[in-house]
Amino acid sequence: MCRPKMVVLGSREQLCIHEEVSLLRGRAQTNACHSLCRKRTKKGYCGHYSRVSESCKLLLKL
């Protein structure tokens, strides 16, 4: 798996796209985000996570 070098210039509060989690603040949002990500990636439900390898392959071709 490739590990592109990048930086995200924003916090979960600014960048969260999940409707319910984005309404939370502070540690509650962080905990909900981590829990949701773990559940969704283990089950293969997270479309954003599953596209990481596809994006890496495209980047390596450049």
Distance between the termini: 16 Å
Give the percentage of residues in beta strands. Answer: under 5%
Q: Element order, helices and strands? A: HHHH
* Rg from Cα: 14 Å
Uncertain stretches: none
Helix count, DSSP H or I runs of 4 or more residues: 4
Work out the helicity level: 55-70%
Mean pLDDT: 78
The biggest beta sheet is recorded as: none
Q: What is the count of β-strands?
A: 0
Outline, from the CA principal axes? Answer: globular
Structural class: mainly alpha
Total discrete domains: 1
Question: Can you lay out the helices and strands and say which pair or pack?
Answer:
Elements: H1 12-15, H2 26-43, H3 47-50, H4 52-61
Question: What would your notes on this structure say?
Answer:
By secondary structure, the chain is mostly helical. The chain has one domain. Helices cover 58% and strands 0% of the residues. It contains 4 helices and no strands. It has helices at residues 12-15, 26-43, 47-50, 52-61. The longest helix is centred in the middle third of the chain and has 18 residues, at 26-43. It is globular, with a radius of gyration of 14 Å. The mean pLDDT is 78. This is RAD3-like helicase DEAD domain-containing protein. Pfam families: DEAD_2. InterPro entries: RAD3-like_helicase_DEAD (IPR010614). It comes from Vitis vinifera. Residues 5-55 form the RAD3-like helicase DEAD domain.
